[in-house]
Amino acid sequence: MRVILDTNVLLGALISPHGPPDAIYRAWRAARFDLVTSTAQLDELRRVSRYPKLKIILPAHRVGAMVNNMQRAIVLDALPPLPEGVEANDPNDGFLLAMALAGEADYLVTGDRRAGLLQRGSIGRTRIVTPATFCAEAL
């Protein structure tokens, strides 16, 4: 099973060690599924973790350890453009949809209820679900 974790899920795993995002991250570390990521997402994770409000609660070494761990995932270097007619409500999430298609993911897990990804429900063969739904269905 191939899974993409939205950056907000990855950060959630670092912020709260007892919620669904952390359970998902630990399941990947235990080789229960294949994680699909991209250089674009790794760059986003590094950048977002430096925001002042996150920097005070996320030590740089924990973010660095996560980024290093994710180097062992399926890392897509170049993402193709989205097919004609496929758009993300939030342009910053377009790379996640491109990852889902290029990485042939089974799931895209996101906690962002406002960006429109969850409302989309799927793209190609990829189901778009919340962390709680993923835990209930796949773990």
Automatic annotation (TrEMBL):
Residues 1-117 form the PIN domain. Pfam families: PIN_3. It comes from the Bacteria. InterPro entries: PIN-like_dom_sf (IPR029060), PIN_dom (IPR002716), PIN_toxin-like (IPR002850). This is PIN domain-containing protein. It comes from Acidithiobacillus ferrivorans SS3.
